[in-house]
Amino acid sequence: METIISTIDKNNIDESIILSAGQILKDGGLVAFPTETVYGLGANALDEEAAKKTYAAKGRPSDNPLIVHIAELKALEAIVAEVPDLTEKIAKRFWPGPLTMIFKKSQIVPYGTTGGLDTVAVRMPSDKIARELILAAGGYVSAPSANTSGRPSPTTAQHVKDDLDGKIEMILDGGSVEIGLESTILDMTVTPPMILRPGAITADMLEEEIGEVAVDQTLLDSSSTQRPKAPGMKYRHYAPDAKLTIVEGTLKEEILAIRQLAYEAYLQGRQVGIIATNESEQYYSHGIVKNIGTRENEKTIARNLYSVLRDFNEEDISEIYSESFAVQGIGNAIMNRLEKAAGHIRIKAAPIVEKQKYRRIVFVSQSDTSRGPVAAELLRNEKLKQEYVIESRGMVVLFPEPVNQKAEAIMKSGKLTLQNHVSKAFSEEELKDDTLVLTFEQNQKEKIVSEYNVTENVYSINEFLDDDTEIPNPYGQPLTAYGEFYEMMKALTKKLVDKLNSFTEGGK
Ligand code: AMP
Ligand code: MG
């Protein structure tokens, strides 16, 4: 079948398109359309055969019920057996909007639509195109998300096309959706009403309106083997092709752990995907990093989540790591979807980070124009098991200078360069818990220790390696002296690598 794709402007809706889309639905066909949550795959909700087509197009298990979309409150009565007391209050506040309520169904709703259940899920969307389409179709449009079952829900018409082109009659392209996550589902058949799926309407918002609401416990405990009450919640959902793992800790720990995981993959010649935020993006140096939004406004994260998950399918990666988000407000829905996309695979950041005795190494020489920069560059070119920031500083640097020309000549012979190096003075700033300071001379170490009154993390290279090789200072000497220093430093670098790697393996 050829899928018609029609672009509609929300602010200037072309009625003829709505009418023809409505007719397709009345005739038992399928039309994908935008809602404020995600794109829906519409069918006539009162037509058993249309429901079957919906399941077939999505490849969705038929025990996974559809949500019936209405455009007017008065439409509710005909499809539910009874209207519980709180309904009106909730509808008044949250409809139209991203909230689905579950009621006992009436006779006219076919079991095909409800996945065989005696209850029916109903929502009144706020999107203008959705509302006009529902009215044009006769008032009752069943609409699951318009994606292939198991994949991330569609937040653009292109996502729908990627999944369903050729399988449905029509796609209405109304641009990107506003919220990006599916509706909150609230079961009205129990007292107090129970949230079966978190969404943009949070438990707090509902409680403010109606007092106590319950939350399906299986949602809170990801290790639960109990069946969730919303049938759809039991399937792996929203999943990208690559294996997704959620990394948990403080934001700093998460960044450090993901950096390490990305670095380990890089050592093996692989790239990982990373789900990062505005706040963290800059800290990743390996891997394919996608910015999902800002932590200062989690709505941006909700809106981008599915399209980021989909975008990763275009990348050559076998694994994705994601930071975690606070389980508050819409963060609850974000983590719920992320966990389902990850098939509940989570790891703790702390054990990875705790193995990192140091994260930065600073070589300190006299002027930071020869020995320090050479040592730093040699170490940077080693495949250490952990990623370090490696730098050099000088005890006496009055103004920034480029590297000594003889040092550069020797580096060139080893196919390295220090062309971009500029000398910098050592300062108290280098004395941090995660920074290893290595001096070339014993007296440099002692000077730092006494001047800044430090007790830890500052060593001469000899001390640190427990090695008594005398490291010559080639300054002012012929090129051969630089060559000798370079060879010696190469040998010491190997020892440094072993020592640093022993920390990563958990040694001391
Ligand atoms: P989707 O349309 O893709 O957002 O999926 C609709 C989801 O709503 C289903 O997967 C179910 O989890 C839930 N749902 C729909 N109808 C019912 C119902 N009668 N009882 C419980 N959950 C329902
Ligand atoms: Mg869905």
Give an overview in words.
The structure is a single chain. By secondary structure, this protein is an alpha/beta fold. It is 35% helix and 16% strand. It has 18 helices and 20 strands. It has helices at residues 15-26, 48-58, 76-79, 87-94, 111-114, 128-136, 157-164, 203-210, 217-220, 251-267, 298-312, 330-341, 350-354, 371-380, 405-413, 442-452, 461-465, 479-504; strands spanning 4-7, 31-33, 40-44, 67-69, 99-104, 119-123, 141-142, 170-173, 184-187, 194-197, 214-215, 243-248, 273-276, 288-291, 319-322, 346-348, 360-365, 389-394, 435-439, 458-460. The chain has an 11-stranded mixed β-sheet with strand order 1-8-2-3-7-4-6-5-9-10-11, with helices on both faces. Helix 15 (405-413) packs across helix 18 (479-504). The longest helix is centred in the C-terminal third of the chain and has 26 residues, at 479-504. The radius of gyration is 31 Å and the shape is elongated. The structure holds adenosine monophosphate and magnesium ion. Residues 144-145, 153 line the site of magnesium ion.
What is the count of helical runs? 18
Bound molecules: adenosine monophosphate, magnesium ion
Mean model confidence by pLDDT: 94
Rough outline: elongated
Number of strands: 20
Rg, alpha carbons:
31 Å
Strand order of the largest sheet: 1-8-2-3-7-4-6-5-9-10-11
The proportion of residues in beta strands is 15-25%
Please outline the major beta sheet. Answer: 11 strands, mixed
Flag low-confidence runs.
Answer: none
In short:
With 508 residues, the protein is of the alpha/beta class. Helix content is 35%, strand content 16%. It is built from 18 helices and 20 strands.
